[in-house]
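Entry 14. Two folds queued back to back today. First construct below, sequence then structure tokens.
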Amino acid sequence: MEGKYRFFICCWLLLVSCQEVSKKGTVDTGIKDTVHERAEDTTYSDLEGNTIALSSFKGKRILLNFWATWCRPCIEEMPSLLKAKRILENEGYVILLASDESLKEIKGFKESESFEFNYIRYNGAFSQLNIHALPTTFIYNESGKKVEKIVGATDWDSPEMIKKLKEIHK
């Protein structure tokens, strides 16, 4: 009986830790945080271990995608995110993919896959950012204000999403 209980708990944890919401994801708007006011600005590093501050991208729009190498919906949305990246680069966007896994795991994924992204490491716990499912994406405008939170896998290169992202401004 105890084995069945453990199996049920493990399955439940797997389901809630990595979920795919609808193709367009769930959007939380009206968020008031800026990268200049939050601890999240100092909790990132590049793949060499150097600290990265989101505020260093001031004047750019940031699409910050939280993902994991073990998260199937995260990996499945990467081709559309890569297409969106190519479109949005001319719109002043910086696309960052943040994982809380080890630098070795992130580097290994980058080397084995053909997704050319700016991979970074989040050095805190996702729960500190109120992230409870992957993938989760934060969108910041040019002023560093978080203007969107999208939970779940998203069709990033859809005309509707591209239009929405292009319209995000100060």
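Second construct, same run, same settings:
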Amino acid sequence: MSVPSIDQLQELPPPPSSVSYWPQTWAWVWLAIVLLLLLAAWGFWRYRKWQRDRYRREALALLDELGVGARDPAHRLAALRQVPVVVKRVALSMPDGAAAAPLSGADWQAFLQARSPAALPADLGRQLTLLAYAPDARVASMDEQEVHDLLSACRRWIEVHRVAA
């Protein structure tokens, strides 16, 4: 009797797949379709929100540039003079922004606070007016902490203000 050799062994074929990848009932197909539609609707909603907030992103980028310019003594005055312009442009870009055009002083502060869920500094409107209309020497003499706080308050307002649809 001969001893079998290892060369005579043959690989066994894999067993047939016992689990189908296709859903067993149509309810799973419909559930997958509904989930895909919900995901597509959510993606469309996020895209529209992203488009609507384009003005915020642009204003925040401009505010960042002004913050860098405010740290440079050669560009400090010009950068600080532009801060109230940016905030006013953001307010004017809102659907009810035409109401913001003639505002100043306490009315401007009330407009800003009414559209912000976060508390703003009580003198933000006054500081923006100071930047826009004060003599150059007064604006240039603002200390770094005051400028930083003002830019932070403006950034916070731009990020979180509510827009009436």
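Quick look at the second one. The mean pLDDT is 89. The helical segments are 26-52, 54-71, 76-92, 105-114, 124-133, 136-140, 144-160.
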